[in-house]
Amino acid sequence: MSAKRGIKLQNRIITAAVIMLIQFAFLFFGSIALSKSFFSLYALSEIVGILTVIFILNKRQSPGYKIAWIIFILVLPIFGISVFLLWGGARITPRKKKTYKRFEDLSLKELDKDDTILTHLDYEDYLHSRQARFLIKESGFPIYNHTKCDYLPSGEAFFKSLCEELKKARQYIFLESFILAEGEMWEEIFNILKKKSEENVEIRIMFDDFGSIRRQEKGFIKNIEKYGIKIAVFNMIKPSATIANIFINNRNHQKIVVIDGKVAFTGGVNIADEYINKYERFGHWLDCGAKFEGKAVEGFLSVFCTMWGFTQNSPLDIKKYLVNYHQDSKGFVIPYSDDPLGENNPAEGIYMQILGSAQRYVYITTPYLILDGNMKKTIELAAKSGVDVRIITPHIPDKGYVHSVTRYNYLNLLESGVRIYEYTPGFIHSKLFVSDDRVATVGTVNMDYRSFELHFENGAWVSDTDFAIEIKNNIEEIMEKSQEIMLEDWKKISVFTRIKQGILNVFSPFM
């Protein structure tokens, strides 16, 4: 399997990284030298630092994110202030915000908004309709019925179903992934896409450059484009990158496939061989996804069209791709996206809504458990009130420092009555919430600062008994293969480990 895109593009990564390191070094040592040489400048920096801290405290962001920046500024005033002004608080230029909003509005305004569906949900399940009302208002996406939802409990099941549906495509295939890596998975998909292109099926592919660049050989993109397939690369890494390129910290973590406006896929599965265990990384890789057929597909189409327009700075007319397709199925679906450009936070918000509304249980799977104070308190309150809250995280981590912060959060949660499991065979990458045999979410959103604050994400909220029970049963099967973390054992970890985890936790918003 290939592990890199090629010499030329590898040099592109190295060059960009070296340039940024040089600029950081210049900024750091320059700020130290200035503070030592000019007392008045240092005093001014203290005043600016205080004003910056006041500004941070009044921002609508998580307390943990604020604390990390405040400590950084207090320890290194001039340097800290300079870096914050460039990168702090997920700062994004007004122009980019305006551009994204323009493309989002173009897509969202064409979606079918039927208020009677929400009224129907109110009648069937008023408790959970509150979650739907929150998500509709926070995300801007409507609620749908007449949609069949199939849970795909592994990367292998996701891949099999995806290939079957790709072969049925007649009009178009839109594919978006954080990672698009060469290997057996991509080769099988690409063979289908080439055949479909010959059948005049319109094909568009979008991926994130940071997620994919080391997984593609030289000429990868040109080889795809020669078959008439359109490519959009999000936030391309360039040797001209500078620390002033603040948007480089924001990535497109969305994963969506839309086929003919009738079928859509989402979940945690990237296009890379480890996701279907064709080769081993961090033990057995466990992921999941979902397939949607029917009206809700247009919501996923809207997410794709918005991101394509934003990436290419050219609108993709959603009206050309909408079809009035229904499936005779019960249940309700809200596809949604979450971006770092506005004040709304539908992804973290719906997680908190589910925890706050739960009556019997909430089961969660996540590769990362890096929690701000609000989320941690919400989980603890649910557990203390008698809700059976269970969380599954990896036993074999992909990033050791992130896993240390994940484990730092165990103690308080365990003391509150949360049951925590680590997936012993390897790495669990699924992002699932399920509650009370009734509601569930599936998508790309991790429980960490990057997903909640910095990345473009997407997901689906589903109110459907069969779908929820399938996920619940699958999570219970995963628990049987996992090691439960017991409070009395966790209290025995060394003081050194606790100190290391505590220090890393302070700066977890930067991870």
What does this structure look like?
- This protein has 511 residues and is of the alpha/beta class.
- It has an 8-stranded mixed sheet, with helices on both faces. The chain has a 7-stranded mixed sheet with strand order 1-8-6-5-2-3-4, with helices on both faces. The chain has a two-stranded parallel ribbon with strand order 7-13.
- It contains 20 helices and 17 strands.
- The relative contact order is 0.13.
- The chain has helices at 7-37, 39-57, 63-75, 77-87, 94-108, 115-124, 126-139, 155-167, 184-198, 209-212, 220-225, 297-312, 346-357, 373-384, 400-408, 410-415, 449-454, 465-480, 487-490, 495-506; strands at 147-152, 172-177, 202-208, 230-234, 256-259, 263-267, 284-286, 289-294, 332-338, 361-365, 388-394, 419-423, 426-428, 432-435, 439-443, 457-463, 483-485.
- Residues 1-9 have low confidence and may be disordered.
- Helix content is 48%, strand content 17%.
Structure described in brief:
The protein is of the alpha/beta class.
Tell me the β content.
15-25%
Number of distinct beta strands:
17
Portion of residues within helices? 40-55%
| SS summary, helix count | 20
Question: If you compute it from the alpha carbons, what radius of gyration comes out, rounded to the nearest whole angstrom?
Answer: 23 Å
Mean pLDDT over all positions: 87
Low-confidence parts, pLDDT < 50 over ≥5 residues? 1-9
- Between the first and last Cα atoms, what is the distance in angstroms? 28 Å
Strand order of the largest sheet: 9-16-15-14-10-11-12-17
Q: What is the overall shape?
A: globular
Query: Mind summarizing the main beta sheet?
Result: 8 strands, mixed
Structural class designation? alpha/beta
Oligomer: single chain
